């Protein structure tokens, strides 16, 4: 009896997850900007989720509604980070469900078919999804990582030399804009040399990613009059950007989050500390007063 209740409880949980998946994939397929190919793939996955829902419903004899909060959350993630990111994040979260299916295979024979769909068929469909921002992720990596390393280093270096928040901010803006254009130009030439189909798009993604990061890092110097406070907030902003980007990379590229985060964090802040020390000694040696 206890075993029967436990299995029923698990099946009801599976049923809720499947109906949530159906609602999310259906909503994603209707978003503006989603290609026709992706719409078909997402609709097919939604159909599979609904089929799985009905499979569990035969055993629970209960109707379950989607969790609107969960659905809204994933739609929001899709609008911010893209459909591919959202789908891959959902797939990564379904690992526990697949383990749960294995636990009921002996009691529910149809669980084996559902498990096969989750592990093979849907996975193949997810890998077929294409999205422009994902195709140019290497260009975004180049822009963001270079901006964080170069600009945190540059701003930390000139902070002690100039000791004026707004002046440091202006230097950061000029340096950042010049560097973003330079980085974009280099990416264009690199992609063109490699005979990439759209070198200009790759360059624009690099430039946009670099410039966005620049804005995040220089804003504190126009908000605070104390360059020390601005410097602290700049490092916090840099950490937030690294966190968000590392999370994005860990989901889309399926690489360890901790490794990606700590690697970029260590490099960026090591360069910043070295630049800060250089700025200190430059001010002392050159005896510059502003």
From TrEMBL:
GO terms for biological process: intracellular manganese ion homeostasis. The chain crosses the membrane at residues 68-87, 168-190, 202-224, 230-252, 264-282. One of its GO terms (molecular function) is manganese ion transmembrane transporter activity. It is a multi-pass membrane protein. SUPFAM superfamilies: Ferritin-like. Coiled coil: none annotated. It comes from the Bacteria. Keywords: Membrane, Transmembrane, Transmembrane helix. It is found in: Endomembrane system. Its main location: membrane. GO terms for cellular component: endomembrane system. This is Rubrerythrin diiron-binding domain-containing protein. It comes from Hippea maritima (strain ATCC 700847 / DSM 10411 / MH2). The lineage of its organism: Bacteria, Pseudomonadati, Campylobacterota, Desulfurellia, Desulfurellales.
């Amino acid at each position: 009896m206890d075993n029967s209740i436990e299995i029923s409880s698990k099946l009801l949980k599976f049923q809720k997850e499947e109906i949530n998946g159906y609602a999310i994939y259906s909503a994603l397929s209707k978003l503006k900007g989603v290609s026709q190919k992706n719409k078909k793939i997402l609709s097919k996955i939604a159909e599979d989720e609904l089929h799985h829902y009905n499979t569990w419903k035969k055993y629970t004899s209960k109707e379950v509604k989607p969790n609107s909060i969960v659905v809204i959350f994933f739609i929001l993630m899709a609008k911010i980070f893209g459909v591919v990111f959202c789908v891959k994040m959902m797939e990564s979260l379904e690992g526990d469900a697949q383990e749960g299916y294995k636990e009921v295979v002996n009691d529910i024979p149809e669980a084996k078919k559902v498990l096969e769909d989750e592990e093979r068929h849907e996975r193949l469909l997810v890998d077929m999804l294409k999205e422009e921002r994902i195709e140019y992720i290497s260009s975004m990596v180049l822009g963001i990582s270079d901006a964080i390393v170069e600009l945190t280093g540059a701003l930390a270096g000139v902070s002690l030399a100039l000791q004026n928040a707004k002046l440091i901010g202006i230097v950061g803006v000029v340096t950042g804009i010049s560097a973003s254009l330079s980085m974009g130009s280099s990416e264009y030439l690199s992609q063109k040399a490699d005979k990439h189909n759209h070198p200009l798009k790759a360059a624009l993604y690099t430039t946009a990613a670099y410039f966005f990061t620049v804005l995040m890092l220089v804003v504190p110097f126009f908000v605070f009059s104390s360059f020390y406070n601005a410097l602290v907030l700049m490092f916090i902003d840099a950490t937030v950007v690294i966190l968000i980007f590392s999370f994005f990379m860990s989901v889309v590229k399926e690489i360890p989050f901790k490794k990606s985060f700590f690697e970029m964090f260590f490099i960026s802040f090591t360069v910043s500390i070295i630049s800060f020390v250089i700025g200190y000694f430059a001010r002392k040696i050159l005896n510059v007063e502003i």
